[in-house]
Amino acid sequence: MINDIRPLAAGVRLRPATLGDAGSFAEALTRSRAYMRRWEPVRPEAFYTPQGQAQRLAGLLADRDAGRAMPWVLADDEDRVVGAMTLASIERGPFRNARLGYWIDVERAGRGLATAAVGRVCEAARDGLGLHRVEAATVVDNTASQRVLTKAGFEQIGTAPRYLHIDGAWQDHRMFQRILHDGPPHS
Ligand SMILES: CC(C)(COP(=O)(O)OP(=O)(O)OC[C@H]1O[C@@H](n2cnc3c(N)ncnc32)[C@H](O)[C@@H]1OP(=O)(O)O)[C@@H](O)C(=O)NCCC(=O)NCCS
């Protein structure tokens, strides 16, 4: 489930992120920068460089090795990054929960990729990571992201005032969750 070989769509698959994706991440994030600005924290210029992405990925992969995160990329048929899905803040014990974040390359948006990938990530969270719940938060007017979550089986559970610092301000967010199963905890 973590290494799912089924294609997501024609020419696009979901696979675990690697350090070797840094250059491709920098290109996709640079290409999509203006498109993503309203929904993202303000990033330093270094974030858009291969070196900045290598540093970010190294941290994320260390978190993965410690069981706290699971980063995937959406890769095209030349294995270039065209989006990303990340489960972060993974907790076990009685919570068995993770936070979901994602983006899709501006050139690939609006074709159902995010919805398909969120569905796959939830399968991996349940069957591969043994989680019970995935949560996500969107800026109140990020309608596309809310639509993705609703299509992927999430329910809105409330609104959190001034929840995250996005596009230069503490912004209210809609909070979503998907319960993955009602069985006992398993690993
Ligand atoms: C949000 C995002 C991930 C969606 O990716 P995607 O691959 O285009 O998503 P999908 O094609 O699976 O679904 C998008 C849905 O939103 C709808 N949508 C898109 N733009 C919209 C808008 N401005 N208003 C309302 N609905 C919108 C689409 O019509 C579609 O719904 P439908 O299938 O019912 O027609 C992508 O736009 C993105 O990366 N945005 C910038 C980063 C971001 O917002 N990340 C999420 C932070 S919570």
Automatic annotation (TrEMBL):
Family matches, as SUPFAM superfamilies: Acyl-CoA N-acyltransferases (Nat) (SSF55729)
Pfam families: Acetyltransf_3 (PF13302)
Domain of life: Bacteria
Domain N-acetyltransferase: 12-177
InterPro entries for this protein: Acyl_CoA_acyltransferase, GNAT_dom, N-acetyltransferase
Keyword Iron: no
EC number: 2.3.1.267
Keyword Repeat: no
Keyword entries, A-Z: Acyltransferase, Transferase
Gene3D superfamilies hit by this protein: 3.40.630.30
Any GO MF annotation of the entry: protein-N-terminal-alanine acetyltransferase activity
Entry's family note: Belongs to the acetyltransferase family. RimJ subfamily.
PANTHER family: [RIBOSOMAL PROTEIN US5]-ALANINE N-ACETYLTRANSFERASE, GNAT FAMILY, PUTATIVE (AFU_ORTHOLOGUE AFUA_3G00765)-RELATED-RELATED
Protein name in UniProt: Ribosomal-protein-alanine N-acetyltransferase
Biological source species: Streptomyces clavifer
